[in-house]
Specification:
Shape: elongated
Structural class: mainly alpha
Strand content: under 5%
Number of helices: 11
Number of domains: 2
Oligomer: single chain
Number of strands: 0
Largest sheet: none
């Protein structure tokens, strides 16, 4: 049976899915152990039992022993990252993350159904797919319960993302023609404050308009966001992003060194923010990170180049 599958896929399919199911089992077991929400604790306990049953199916096909399974270090890191995400981002983000995880697993199982696998394996996989579809549906319903909280998380991430990208571009361009780090720092802070007020106002109006439209259309809103709270999160984290991009100049860095330090700081935080955006928006993590880095570094490079040309061609230096 295994030879038949390996001949088609070039991989030990049974072992790979056994390890994937054991990884999910350990993930749900860890969350169930630490989760305080009774509803989510009960849900992940149910998912944990089902994942272990799936693991035993693949263990019987591959000859693996679930009792002797040892998780690789990267899987252990992933497990504890979920706990960190739960602590920092809240229950809404974690349920979205788990839903995404189940969706990915379901896609993988559906893909192997297109392969030339034996009828016995096909029957097993069909049974697992039905369970995975139930899992995804259960997590989707749990995610919908926390939709308002997820909206606040979205406001936090997008606000910070905008602050990082916009202020990096501002300080990069200005640093090329300013001889003093103080000038760059104070300009970055002023633009950051202006952007904070603008973003907060925009978030408030957008959130309020959405509520008004939903009510006018008699659309049921389970847990609408509060415009004031939405504005607060968007504005506060925009300013946080602005500080990340500006802090090297606040500490006295200038010129190319200041731009480099600012860019590195933004790359680190923006990568994390982009991963969060990818999870919330159900898009590819790698693609989202590379896209955001390309945009932010591209805008920084263009504005720095403009500042350099102004300095060289026009001889303008701000001191």
């Amino acid at each position: 049976m295994a030879d038949n599958i390996n001949k088609i896929t070039g991989k030990n399919l049974e072992k790979r899915f056994f390890e994937a199911e054991m990884s999910d089992f350990n993930l749900y077991r860890l969350i169930a152990k630490h989760e305080r929400s009774p509803e989510l604790k009960k849900l992940v306990a149910s998912l944990m039992n089902t994942e272990f049953r799936h693991a035993k199916i693949w263990a019987a096909l591959s000859g693996e022993d679930p009792k002797r399974y040892s998780m690789p270090i990267n899987s252990k890191i992933k497990l504890y990252m979920y706990l960190v995400a739960r602590k920092l981002m809240g229950i809404a983000f974690v349920t979205k993350l788990l839903e995404r995880n189940e969706k990915k697993g379901l896609e993988e199982y559906n893909s192997i159904m297109k392969e030339g696998i034996s009828s016995k394996v096909r029957t097993k996989v069909s049974s697992i797919i039905k369970d995975e579809e139930k899992h995804e549906d259960m997590l989707l319903k749990e995610t919908e319960k926390h939709e308002a909280r997820l909206d606040y998380t979205r406001s936090i991430v997008f606000g910070m993302n905008d602050g990082l990208v916009e202020i990096l571009a501002v300080v990069s361009g200005l640093a090329m023609i300013a001889s003093s780090s103080f000038i760059v720092a104070i300009t970055g802070i002023i633009v950051g404050i202006s952007g904070t007020l603008s973003m907060a106002a925009g978030a408030y109006l957008s959130s309020k308009s959405e509520i008004v439209v939903d009510r006018s259309l008699e659309k049921k809103v389970k847990a609408p966001t509060k415009p004031i709270k939405d504005a607060y999160y968007t504005g506060a984290f925009y300013f946080f992003g602005a500080l990340i991009a500006t802090y090297p100049f606040i500490l006295g860095a200038s010129g190319y060194l200041g731009i480099a330090e600012s860019a590195i700081s933004v790359i680190i935080i923006l990568s994390i923010a982009s991963m969060l955006i990818a999870v919330i928006s159900d898009t590819g993590i790698k693609r989202r990170v590379l896209e955001m880095l390309a945009i932010s570094l591209g805008t920084a490079f263009v504005t720095a180049l403009i500042g350099f040309l102004i300095k060289v061609m026009l001889g303008i230096v701000i001191s």
